[in-house]
Amino acid sequence: MYLGHPGVHKTRNSIRKYLSIPQCKSRIYEIVRKCELCQSNKIRQSKYGRITGSLATCKPWEHISSDIFGPIETSDFLATDNLPNKIYILTITDRASRWTELGILANVTAETVCETLIQEWLSKYPTPITLLSDRGKQYTSGRFRNLMKNYSVKHILTSPYNPTGNSISERINQTIAFTLRNHRDKSIREAIKTAQQSLNYTYHRILGFSPFEYLHKYSRLDPLKRELDINYEAISERQKSQSTRDNQELNKSRITNYEFKLNSKVYVKNPNPKSKMDTRWLGPGSITKISDNKNSFEILLDNNYIQANLKNIRPY
């Protein structure tokens, strides 16, 4: 009788009453562990490794993050402002103050993204030390690499399929989506301007001030323009404490004493299953590089080197 890869617990309890097998549990465990079908297709509840890292920084203009929001159908708004039917928004955010610029993209070619980044940020503000982004083809293009080189900006790429790696930009995107949905009675340009004002002039929980107040020490909403007393060190500590709490919350459901090592065999979560029948986990592959914070890995998988986040791998 063929039972169809039932796993350790089910196999052991199905036969233990009827068969006496020395070291039954450990033997079944080894069989299941070495079964590639079980390893590739079982739903895994256990998560391995400790999440670390933080995007906290306290000096304005030194570290920025960027993302692309969209597509947006301009016909959903009161007026299209002569923009194409489908547009995108380039978001650029100062990670210390959360000051954000939104640039309209008629398309998402590397050339358009680079030109908009120059227009909306690099030509207006101090040149940053680093820029954080995902691995979208616009950001990994030769054109974008050359732009970063020309401005002497270190480009930091998040690991693939890990939106929380650029969590600041992800939260910016949520605010943009909410604001645009609520202002479809305006022209598209007016709606985007409203989203930018909402991001820059309203209270930010971690800062304790709006981004504008953080940078200029007064509020645009105060007719008297009174100077604000801002403790930047305290804000930096709040940012770090929040990052620590966020990581602690994530680590509650993880096996944090497990450490992935070089040459360890691992399975990588399938990022693009085409159907419910597709393999859930790809591999096994071998770890060839580990980032300093041990949250990002280079893995040799099927003769290709890929990047993977700690959240998307598990031991062989």
DSSP helix count?
Answer: 9
Strand order of the largest sheet: 4-3-2-5-6
Q: What is the helix content?
A: 25-40%
Portion in beta strands:
15-25%
Low-confidence stretches: none
Radius of gyration: 24 Å
The termini sit apart by 28 Å
Give the beta-strand count.
Answer: 12
The level 1 CATH classification of the largest domain is: Alpha Beta
Q: Kindly identify the CATH topology of the largest domain.
A: Nucleotidyltransferase, domain 5
The CATH architecture of the largest domain can be named as 2-Layer Sandwich
**What oligomerization state is this entry in?**
single chain
Q: What gross morphology would you assign?
A: elongated
Largest sheet: 5 strands, mixed
CATH homologous superfamily caption of the largest domain: Ribonuclease H-like superfamily/Ribonuclease H
Structural class: alpha/beta
Topology as a string of helices (H) and strands (E): HHHEEEEHEHEHHHHEEEEEE
Taking all residues together, what is the mean pLDDT?
A: 88
